[in-house]
C-alpha cells in the first residue's frame, strides 16, 4: 500500500482483459458453428432418422456407439456390448474399445445418464453441443499460444479472428461433427500451448512441473481420441529432434517431452486393450532410438563446426537405423499388419512404384488424400493471413538458420548466455519450436489435403505472433537502421490494429450473410430405405453394401453389418474388397458365395456407385476393382497391356435384368431412385 491505498500490479490488468477476450471469443466461435449447423440442416425440426443420416460415413459409425451406450439397460451392459460386439462385423466378435477410438462416446454417454438433464436435452444435442463446446477450447488454446509467443493478447485476438474468418480452411466441425479429429485437435492445440509455455526460459520448478502435467494430460487426451495420433506426434518428435540437434532447445526439456509422448501413447495402448497398432507405431520406435542414441554418443555438443557436423550426420543415421530396426522387430514379434495400408498408400503417393493394391488406390483416388489445392492459398490471402504468414516465416527461417549455424560453430553455453544480448539475431526456444512445427505440418498439409486443418489453425497463431512480436519488428528496424524501442511498439500495435480493422471490414458482411442463410436437410431416398429396413427386416438381419452407407444402416436401424468405414484392420480391408465384388465383373455364383461366407442376408446396391461419374476413369470404384481383378476397365481410354476382358458382365448392372442365373440367388425386395435391396436365397 502507498498512503493507505492499494496499488494494483499493472500486469494483472492486461491478463484479466486478455483472459476475458479469449473466453468470449471461444464461446462466440461455439455459438457460430452451432448456428451454422442448425441453419444448414434445420436440425431442430427434422425427424430423428434424418438427424442420424446427417452423420455421414464414419461419423455415423462413431455416433452409433454413443446411441448404443445410451439405449443399453445399464452402463455395465453397454460396456459389455462394446467389448463383445458382434453387430459391427458379421460372423465375428470384436472389441470396439480396442479397435476404435470411442472412449469419448463412452464417457459422454455415461455423463448423460448420470447428469439430471434427460428432461431438458435430447442425447443428440448433448453430443453435438459438447463438440461445439470443444471449439471454444480450441480457439482459446490458439489465442493463448499466440499471446505467450508475442507477449500481448492483441496477437491472440488476431489469431482467433483469423481462425474464425478462414473457417472453411481451419475446421470442418459443423458438417462432420463426430469425426475423430474434431475431438482431438482442441487437445492438440492445448498441448502446443503448454509446450510453448514449457519452453520459456526462467521458469520456476513448480511452474515447470505443472506445465509438464498439462502437456501429459493434453497429449494423453489427444492420443485417446484419434487413431492417427501416432503420426501427428511423430512429426512433433521430429521437430523436437531437429531443434535439439541444432542446440535450439534445452535438452532436458526435450527428453521430458519424448518421455511424455511415449508414456501418453502407452497409457492409451493399455486402455485400448493393448492395441497392436500403437505398440508398432513409428513414434515409440523413434523416441526410444533417440534416447538410446544419445546415451551412446555422449559428447555430441562439443567441438568445432566440422567436427560437430560429422557427429550430427552420424547421430541422424544412428537414430534412423535404430528406429527401423526396433520397429521391424516389434512388428515381427507382434505379427502386425494393421497399418500396412498407410505405408502402401505413402509409397504409391510419392511414386515409389505404381500399385494395383485396392486399398492404396482407394485412398489415392480420394480428393481428401490428394495434394492441397492451390485455391486454398487464394482464400487464405483474402484475409491477409497467407501474406503475413509467408513474411513471418521467411524472417524466422533466416533467423533460425543464422542461430543454428552460430550454435554449431561452438560458442560455449556460458559465453552464449552472456553474448545473447549482443547479437542482433536471436530466436527464443518457444518461437523456434513453433517455427519448425509450422514448417513440418505445412509439408504434411501440402502433400495431403485432409491434414490441412492441423496446419491452417497453427498458421493463424504463427502469423499473428510474428505481426505482434517485438523481436520481429526489432530485427526489421535494425536492418534498416531505424530501431528505437518506442518506434517498435508503435509499429507493432498499429499494424495489428489496422489488420484487425481490415479483417472486420472485409469479413463481417460475409459472416452475417452466412448466418442468415437457411437451408433444410433433404435426402428422401435414404430416409425411405432406413424406414423400410426397420419395418421389413428382422433385428438380426445381416446387411452388405458400401462402407459409407452401412455406417448409416447400423446407426439408424441397429442391423448387423458385413463391413464399415473404420479401415484400420487387415481382416476388414480384405473383407471390404471381397464385398465390393458386387460392383465388379463377377459371376452371380461367385458374388453369392462371397456374400454368404460373411453371413449376408440382404445386399444394398447403389446406383451412385454402379454408374459413378464423380471420379474420372481409373478412379471410379468399379475401375479399382477391375484393375485389382486383372480386368479391362469400362469406357474409352488406355488399359495396361496385361489386363484382360472379363468373362462376365458387371454384377450391379446385370442383376437388374432379372435373368434366371441371378434370380435363383437374389430376390429384389426394395427399390427407389437410388437404392436396390436384394435378399439372398438360402440354399439347402
UniProtKB/TrEMBL annotation:
The chain crosses the membrane at residues 12-34, 183-199, 211-228, 234-252, 264-292, 312-330, 384-405, 431-449. It holds the Pfam family Dpy19. Belongs to the dpy-19 family. This is Dpy-19 like C-mannosyltransferase 3. It is found in: Membrane. GO terms for molecular function: mannosyltransferase activity. Keywords: Glycosyltransferase, Membrane, Transferase, Transmembrane, Transmembrane helix. It is a multi-pass membrane protein. InterPro entries: Dpy-19/Dpy-19-like (IPR018732), Dpy19L3 (IPR047465). GO terms for cellular component: nuclear inner membrane. Its main location: membrane.
